[in-house]
Design goal:
The protein is of the alpha/beta class and 397 residues long. Helix content is 42%, strand content 15%. It has 14 helices and 15 strands. It has helices at residues 7-10, 16-29, 48-59, 72-86, 100-112, 128-135, 153-159, 182-192, 223-228, 253-266, 272-283, 287-307, 344-355, 379-395, and strands spanning 35-36, 95-98, 118-123, 139-144, 164-170, 198-202, 229-234, 247-250, 314-315, 323-327, 335-336, 339-340, 357-358, 360-361, 370-374. The strands form 4 sheets. The chain has a 7-stranded mixed beta sheet with strand order 2-8-7-6-5-3-4, sandwiched between helices. Strands 9-10-15-14 form a 4-stranded antiparallel beta sheet. Strands 1-13 form a two-stranded parallel ribbon. Strand 3, helix 6 (128-135) and strand 4 (139-144) form a beta-alpha-beta unit. Helix 12 (287-307) packs parallel to helix 14 (379-395). The longest helix is centred in the last third of the chain and has 21 residues, at 287-307. It is globular. It starts with 6 loop residues before the first helix and ends with a helix. Bound molecules: pyridoxal-5'-phosphate.
C-alpha cells in the first residue's frame, strides 16, 4: 500500500469564497476599513423568539440524541410548510433534517449517484454544486443558461446523455438572483416528464423573492414529478440562522431511507437544541423575517440605482436572493494605473488593494468575467462601497 491520499478528494477545489473571507478578516485585523460585498449570509440577528426557544430547550434539558432524520414535531411542521406554501404533498416520512442546506445536498447526491453518473448544473452556478457532485463520485456537466440566466431547454437536451442521473436547479438563484416563474418550471417539468432523471431543487432562498409571483416548487407539477424531485430548503437564509447549521429536504421514502443510512452512520441528528429553535421559527412570529426581506429589496434597489451609471458593466436586475452579478468582460485587457487587468481575479484584487472593497470574482461560479456583489450589508456601507467601485471603474483606461 502507499500513503497516497484520496484521488477523488484531491480533485476537489476548496471553497474560494471561504478563502477570500479569511483574507478579509486578516485585512480588517490589520486596521483596513474594508467594505465587503462578499458575504453569503444575512447581516441580521436571528429573531429573538427563535433564540429564546433554543435557550428554553437547554433549560428544559432537551440535550440528548434525537432520531437521525430529526424530531417528529419539526418534521411534521416542515411537511406542513411544504404542503401549504409549496403545494408539495409530503408527510413527515418524506423529510430529513440535516446540518444546513449543504448537508442536505450532499446527502441527496450520495443517495442517488453511482460512480460516473452525470449531474447537470446550470451556469452561472453556486460553486459548491460542482465539488459536491465530485465528492459523491459523480461527474458535473456544466450547461450554460440563456441571456436571462434561465435554463435553455435546447442546451439541456444537447447535454443529456444516458449517464445523466440528475439536474440541479436553484431558484431564487445564487449568484444571478434569477427567479424562475411557474410557467418556466412547468415547461421544464413537462420536458422531463418521461425521462428518468432526478431533479434536485435548491429553494434555500425561497423567501427572498422580490417578484409579484409566488415561489413555485417544481415537485408540485405532478405526482410523477414529486417522486423524482428532491426539494432542498433550510433556515439559514430565510431566518438569518446561518451559524445554527440546519436545513431540510423533502424526497420520496426510498431516498429518505438511503439518507437515513448515510446520515445515521456519518453525523446522526442535527443539534437537538437547534431543532427546537426551528419549531419556533415555523410556528412563531414572522415580523423580523418580513422586515429583513423588505430591507433586502430596498438595498437591491439602491445597488441597481448605482450601477446603472457605471461604465463597462452589464447586468440583469436580480429578482431574488441577495446577490447581484455584474459582467465586466469589457474591462479585461484594459489598464488600472500600470496594471493590466488580465482576468476578473486581477480586477477583484486591485479593487481590494486600492479601494478596500471586497467582491467575489466568479470564475468558480462558471461566470469567468463576472463579479458577485452581495447586498447583505448596511445601506451606509453599500453607499460607501459603490462609490469606491465607481471611482475605480472611472480610473480604468
Ligand atoms: N444553496 C445555495 C444556493 C447557497 O447559496 C447556500 C449557501 O450559501 C446553500 C445552499 C447552503 O446553505 P446552508 O448550508 O447554510 O443552509
Amino acid at each position: 500500500m502507499s500513503l497516497e491520499l484520496s484521488k477523488k478528494i484531491s480533485a476537489v477545489k476548496p471553497s474560494s469564497t471561504l478563502q477570500l473571507q479569511e483574507k478579509i478578516i486578516k485585512l480588517k485585523k490589520e486596521g483596513r476599513n474594508i467594505i465587503s460585498f462578499t458575504v453569503g449570509e444575512p447581516d441580521f440577528n436571528t429573531p429573538k423568539n427563535i433564540s429564546d426557544a433554543a435557550k428554553k430547550a437547554i433549560d428544559d434539558g432537551f440535550t440528548k440524541y434525537t432520531a437521525v432524520t430529526g424530531i417528529i414535531e419539526l418534521k411534521r411542521l416542515i411537511a406542513n410548510k411544504f404542503n401549504i406554501e409549496n403545494n408539495l404533498n409530503y408527510s413527515e416520512k418524506n423529510i430529513v433534517i440535516s446540518n444546513g442546506g449543504k448537508q442536505c445536498l450532499s446527502n441527496a447526491l450520495t443517495a442517488i449517484l453511482n460512480e460516473g453518473d452525470e449531474v447537470i448544473i446550470f451556469t452561472p452556478a453556486w460553486l459548491s454544486y460542482k465539488q459536491m457532485v465530485k465528492i459523491a463520485g459523480g461527474i458535473p456537466v456544466m450547461v450554460n443558461t440563456n441571456d436571462n440566466y434561465k435554463i435553455d431547454i435546447n442546451q439541456l437536451e444537447k447535454n443529456i446523455s444516458n449517464k445523466t442521473k440528475a439536474i440541479i436547479i436553484n431558484s431564487p438563484n445564487n449568484p444571478t438572483g434569477a427567479v424562475y416563474t411557474e410557467k418556466e418550471l412547468q415547461t421544464l417539468a413537462e420536458y422531463l416528464l418521461n425521462k428518468d432523471i432526478y431533479v434536485i431543487s435548491d429553494e434555500i432562498y425561497e423567501y427572498l423573492n422580490y417578484t409579484n409571483e409566488k415561489h413555485y416548487s417544481i415537485g408540485s407539477y405532478s405526482k410523477e414529478m414529486l417522486h423524482k424531485t428532491i426539494t432542498i430548503n433550510g433556515f439559514s437564509k430565510s431566518y438569518s440562522m446561518t451559524g445554527w447549521r440546519i436545513g431540510y429536504l423533502g424526497a420520496n421514502e426510498k431516498i429518505v431511507e438511503m439518507i437515513n443510512k448515510i446520515q445515521g452512520q456519518q453525523t446522526s441528528n442535527v443539534c437537538s437544541i437547534v431543532q427546537k429553535a426551528c419549531v419556533e421559527a415555523l410556528t412563531g412570529d414572522k415580523k423580523e423575517v418580513i422586515n429583513m426581506i423588505k430591507t433586502f429589496e430596498l438595498r437591491r434597489n439602491i445597488l441597481i440605482n448605482y450601477i446603472k451609471a457605471f461604465p463597462y458593466i452589464s447586468y440583469k436586475k436580480p429578482e431574488g436572493a441577495f446577490y447581484l452579478l455584474i459582467d465586466l468582460k469589457n474591462i479585461i485587457g484594459k489598464k488600472f494605473k500600470d496594471n493590466l487587468i488580465t482576468d476578473i481575479n486581477v480586477f477583484a484584487e486591485l479593487l481590494l488593494e486600492n479601494y478596500d472593497v471586497a467582491v467575489i470574482p466568479c470564475i468558480d461560479f462558471d461566470a469567468p468575467t463576472s463579479i458577485r456583489l452581495s447586498y447583505a450589508l448596511s445601506e451606509d456601507n453599500i453607499n460607501i462601497g459603490m462609490q469606491r467601485i465607481k471611482n475605480m471603474l472611472e480610473e480604468i483606461k
